Amino acid sequence: MTSTRAQGRHALFPADPHAREIAEELYEHVREAPILSPHGHVDPAILAEDTPFSDPTELFITRDHYVTRLLHAGGAPLDALGLAPDQPAEPREVWRTLAANWHRFVGTASGYWIAQELESLFGVEDELSPETADRTYDRVASGLAEAAFRPRALFDRFGIEVLATTDDPLDDLARHDLLASDPSFRGRVLPTFRPDAYLDPETPGFAERVERLLAATAQETTFAGYLTALEARRAYFLQHGAVSADHGVYEPFTTDLDPARAQELFAAALGGSLDDAEARLFRGHMLFQMARMSAADGLVMTIHPGVRRNHHRPTFARFGADTGHDIPVRTEYTENLRPLLEAFGTAPGFHMVLFAVDEAVYSREVAPLAGFYPSVFIGAPWWFLDAPDAILRWRSAVTETAGFYRSSGFIDDTRAFLSIPARHDTARRVDAAFLSRLVTEGRVTLPTARRIARDLVDAIPREVFKL
Amino acid sequence: MTSTRAQGRHALFPADPHAREIAEELYEHVREAPILSPHGHVDPAILAEDTPFSDPTELFITRDHYVTRLLHAGGAPLDALGLAPDQPAEPREVWRTLAANWHRFVGTASGYWIAQELESLFGVEDELSPETADRTYDRVASGLAEAAFRPRALFDRFGIEVLATTDDPLDDLARHDLLASDPSFRGRVLPTFRPDAYLDPETPGFAERVERLLAATAQETTFAGYLTALEARRAYFLQHGAVSADHGVYEPFTTDLDPARAQELFAAALGGSLDDAEARLFRGHMLFQMARMSAADGLVMTIHPGVRRNHHRPTFARFGADTGHDIPVRTEYTENLRPLLEAFGTAPGFHMVLFAVDEAVYSREVAPLAGFYPSVFIGAPWWFLDAPDAILRWRSAVTETAGFYRSSGFIDDTRAFLSIPARHDTARRVDAAFLSRLVTEGRVTLPTARRIARDLVDAIPREVFKL
Amino acid sequence: MTSTRAQGRHALFPADPHAREIAEELYEHVREAPILSPHGHVDPAILAEDTPFSDPTELFITRDHYVTRLLHAGGAPLDALGLAPDQPAEPREVWRTLAANWHRFVGTASGYWIAQELESLFGVEDELSPETADRTYDRVASGLAEAAFRPRALFDRFGIEVLATTDDPLDDLARHDLLASDPSFRGRVLPTFRPDAYLDPETPGFAERVERLLAATAQETTFAGYLTALEARRAYFLQHGAVSADHGVYEPFTTDLDPARAQELFAAALGGSLDDAEARLFRGHMLFQMARMSAADGLVMTIHPGVRRNHHRPTFARFGADTGHDIPVRTEYTENLRPLLEAFGTAPGFHMVLFAVDEAVYSREVAPLAGFYPSVFIGAPWWFLDAPDAILRWRSAVTETAGFYRSSGFIDDTRAFLSIPARHDTARRVDAAFLSRLVTEGRVTLPTARRIARDLVDAIPREVFKL
């Protein structure tokens, strides 16, 4: 990982000098370790084509809905930020909007990452403000024009060993193949099977999408054909390097249905005649089927539940998805996952990583499940919770029940390519801070803390994600 | 704000000497800033009439159900504390009960405030105990006899600039007018529109109350007339200085109904024939209507949801409301508020402050909502959570998602007039402590922390509450 | 309590030197105080018979499902750990499995206790590892052969004054009588009335069990007879020293039913014809009845709700209950307990201790309830939450609302006899750490902190559990 001085050598370490010293030692032990990024949303095209990033605004603002949402909350309409498909905004003006609203980002994870990126990658040490806006913009823009800031060069500079993308089941994965076969590119860019839109009958276009899936795999329009089609595409992903299948669901409800009932619901789903309860049953059975397939083919099953997507329909209608108004909801794992876990929870080689945006479940449900089921791993803090204090709360909540070795290792889950090292660096620093506290409290010896710090960025993600 | 030495110059600051020094500097920056109290329950009569406080017991105990509830839990019947309307208690005896039970208050927010008030206002440095009870009582009683302890003198001494009360929609606001027109009184005492009892058909006396409302505004007994009547009273409040409308609901459920259905439910509500589900629909629609009116007339909408009022009916029957057994329940915001936010969430000038007594919603629902909707602000910790550790947990939970500038600024929400400076001082100290941690962790620069500390007690509440 | 040097003199104390010094002083004040253990699962036979412990593996691993569950999660099948009734495992091999997986326990509560026990009782200072496995096993095994390691000797050495067991309502309590009448044994070993299996009609064997209960107490098969039978067995327990009745329920739902309806459900329960909703009503009414009986006979009512027992049915079928897959669920207290509390919440002498495995309820429901009802006490952190960080979170969550004197005092809730001193020592250290923070923050004076530290291990549990 690139050296990041960012907000100081002691950033995110505890205040107490002795604890800080231990944290620093542990962090130094992992600072330069290669980045394993087993889940994220970087577009593989930017690496396959290695085209230069266009401008600072697209890179830091427009593409990052963590950033645009907070500008929107502060009063900037999304079209003024360049999010309207039909109405471009002047990049420098949008950048000035960010600078004028920089105080809104202070204390947030996004603010911390952006400051770290500006400093470590572009040497910008001034805080963003109306006064520094243009100067910073120009500095970043001139940096981006250099060869050293082309995506592949950054990939190397960031020390990324593995980067997983997130892909449609019918994607031909040509860009992944291109990268894998290019001798000049040494990283591993792995596809991830993400079938949500093919599993939820309430997604717009569900029937057409399933028909395309069946056609692509030469299957009949039956539930059995549908399962075979999904299995075929999973196999295709596996052949092209995939290690996991990702599932973004409203709730992690699972249920096993007999084949006749499943066929009935499948037919009704294609016909658009399911009621709400039936649609829920169908989704719950398909999540169960995904576990069955993962237990069989070995793709690690990751579940990202508990988000009401596109909360503000008028914004969705005009600006589309991923525009900052996906809002978490209360989530239940213990009862919802019971059918799945009774069937596959102890299946050899089955791995399931449970992410959460509901902190109440950390100590109550996720850690106890991972503390018994060999298949269950505690997902690293996700989305809004992927931030220094939140990571620390998560470690505190899950470790006493399940230890360090049932956690998944950090995932950055980002579409903001430049933020990858800052995010991993944050996780490494916070884990060092957490471990240093356990050392000063006499709960872990220093040599063991060193081993754990290392395993958290290396052995653990390799095992959990079968890298 | 009056100088409060209370539990020491470093009270509530972190233990680490360096972090403590930063906290102290930040705190000194805001210690004397005027108090803005945009939500509370002080009776405007005490200021309008400026009558001396009667005795220490009424002031510190009887009027403060934070205090009586814990004495009750410790075994003191409420009638022995003077809460029975028909059975007065000897004030000095009640004070002795508090002193004998003082250990029960150690570590609580109430205990902290009372100790601070006794010291900063009355110079009492001894801890309360059976030995110090009478001495302290006498000291406070003799203080209260002085002119400097009359309500208006304290208002000045506390440095209060704005104090909002909470008022019935049919209140004539004469006491507010009197204060506003009195050239010798310089503070602003603002009414707040609190229509709960006119919106919930399950409140005892609902129909009669609505009839009074309609009569007072010369409206017909139709749903349209009812809305017009509410609008008219809101306008009256606005003319008399109100900046907000407050809503205490069991759940923040909202729904839009067509006018015919609303009329139907309204008629049934007056006739007392609504079933539970219909009553819920009616309440949900009225909360929706309140948002519509706030978007139109500009009154800031504050929502205080999630409390089962009067949990112990036998106590309610004998002692009335606000006697210490209002108990929080799990609360849901994301789905419940969706209809309201789809309709008004991006309406220009609409402000909605979401309070919570359910800590699980801070990072999961409230901060993400405020991180997108320009109308949504994160209410400061409320009720049981308005205490040093809880405030710190709240800042930690919401700031990484939404920053400092989506929070509401502190509200004291108190009917205990004397506790106002202690409560604001607590919030200022805790915010200084929180910011000092971010500074020592390299996440905020010191100059920016200074600006934020100041904005939290000044620019932010002024903007959120349109002061 | 035996002196435990364990992970260092400063274990679990804060890092800041000044706060640490205060914590140490407070801890020294209670370090040797007698252990009061008012709730746990130690088998009274081991004390009655005083037979030597068989081997290190049974003592530290096989009997402790906190330990076996995490080995299972790490890939060790339960039969390889010796849990299959029909398939013994070689103790030394199982011990080696623990040693090889020791890294999995680092940071967990179980890992902390085991390390403390190995050091303080057996003088083992090396961390467990494949290299130290055999050496440690031999050391423990040779220790166990000594008279000083017989259960009664340890009971004395641990400084246990009171130890409550958990017993079936039809138990004859002969072992408790034997201990009580033995002049050479000075401790108090008290039975606890645990009627779950007699109250939940969905427990396998419910009808037969109730018939046995009725036969044993010479009651007719009516609801009235059933209540009388339960009262009779409670009286028997009281006569044999019991101070409490314990209730492990899925949810703390309570309801009062009229006698005719109760009789109807009782008959259907015995006939096995209750549907799910009726079974829930019956359970809810029986929890209500248990409160009525506690209010009458004085047994302290403890409620341990919110756990889905035996989550993985295949494991339950093969290995039985208490094998590591009891998983918490979201729990609701405010509404569920309202009928019970309206009826008995202010009944003189009624004590009810509310435990929780759902941290969200601490500040939201349990502390507010205990802050009003004289009968309600806040149960100490339980099960997965009985660990240093979790205890600290709990104190932080409940104290500001309800103070220290509404909490129950620590319970160890353990079946691992050797872990009792380590668990109580952890609680004492963590409480000292918590108090030391309040002292350094100017919220509690040092003399008051000393009194509280002492009361937490002495006056408070004695009062709450009527010891």
From TrEMBL, chains A, B, C:
<dbReference type="GO" id="GO:0019698">
    <property type="term" value="P:D-galacturonate catabolic process"/>
</dbReference>
<dbReference type="GO" id="GO:0042840">
    <property type="term" value="P:D-glucuronate catabolic process"/>
</dbReference>
<dbReference type="GO" id="GO:0008880">
    <property type="term" value="F:glucuronate isomerase activity"/>
</dbReference>
<dbReference type="Pfam" id="PF02614">
    <property type="entry name" value="UxaC"/>
</dbReference>
<dbReference type="InterPro" id="IPR003766">
    <property type="entry name" value="Uronate_isomerase"/>
</dbReference>
<comment type="similarity">
    <text>Belongs to the metallo-dependent hydrolases superfamily. Uronate isomerase family.</text>
</comment>
<protein>
    <recommendedName>
        <fullName>Uronate isomerase</fullName>
        <ecNumber>5.3.1.12</ecNumber>
    </recommendedName>
</protein>
<dbReference type="InterPro" id="IPR032466">
    <property type="entry name" value="Metal_Hydrolase"/>
</dbReference>
<keyword id="KW-0413">Isomerase</keyword>
<comment type="pathway">
    <text>Carbohydrate metabolism; pentose and glucuronate interconversion.</text>
</comment>
